């Protein structure tokens, strides 16, 4: 089984490759190639734990994420988690991956796919609300589908 940290995930796949993979995944899911049950959501005091499985013909995947607001005071990330990829036939674990990075890239890819479908081909600028993890990745992935000169960002902080 391989283990991919956030940095390794960023190094091994380009925004264009993620966008193509996510687009293919969306099409495949719309055809019913995957069974994606409702996620399990557990609240524990101020913390939230999420279990999100998906089952396909070749692979099964499970994302386990914890959202622990008090981790900010501990100097730890508020969101942490793991994605595990298994062989669907044997159940053998194939990969263990950093869930926050997988989530950030997947979400940015979906934004880029939407932009590619509905935004004019020629644009000069984009606007991004929020300058955190998602704002950064949305900007990077938007630049994979459109050429623009300026990014206008807004953040509360």
Q: In short, what is this structure?
A:
By secondary structure, this protein is an alpha/beta fold. It contains five helices and eight strands. Helix 2 (15-30) crosses helix 4 (99-118) and helix 4 crosses helix 5 (133-145).
Measured distance between first and last alpha carbons: 41 Å
Overall number of strands = 8
Relative strand content: 25-35%
Query: Might you state the CATH topology name?
Result: ornithine cyclodeaminase, domain 1
* Count of spatially separate domains: 1
Question: Secondary structure elements and their pairing?
Answer:
Blueprint: E1 2-4, H1 6-12, H2 15-30, E2 40-44, E3 47-55, E4 59-67, H3 71-74, E5 79-87, E6 93-98, H4 99-118, E7 125-129, H5 133-145, E8 150-154
Parallel strand pairs: 1-6, 7-8
Antiparallel strand pairs: 2-3, 3-4, 4-5, 5-6
Structure characterization notes:
The protein is an alpha/beta fold. The protein has one domain (2-122): ornithine cyclodeaminase, domain 1, CATH 3.30.1780.10. Helix content is 38%, strand content 32%. The protein contains 5 helices and 8 strands. The protein has helices at 6-12, 15-30, 71-74, 99-118, 133-145; strands at residues 2-4, 40-44, 47-55, 59-67, 79-87, 93-98, 125-129, 150-154. The strands form 2 sheets. Strands 1-6-5-4-3-2 form a 6-stranded mixed beta sheet. Helix 5 links the parallel strand 7 and strand 8. Helix 2 packs across helix 4. The chain is globular. The N and C termini lie far apart (41 Å).
Which characteristics define this entry?
8 strands, 5 helices, single chain, alpha/beta, 157 residues
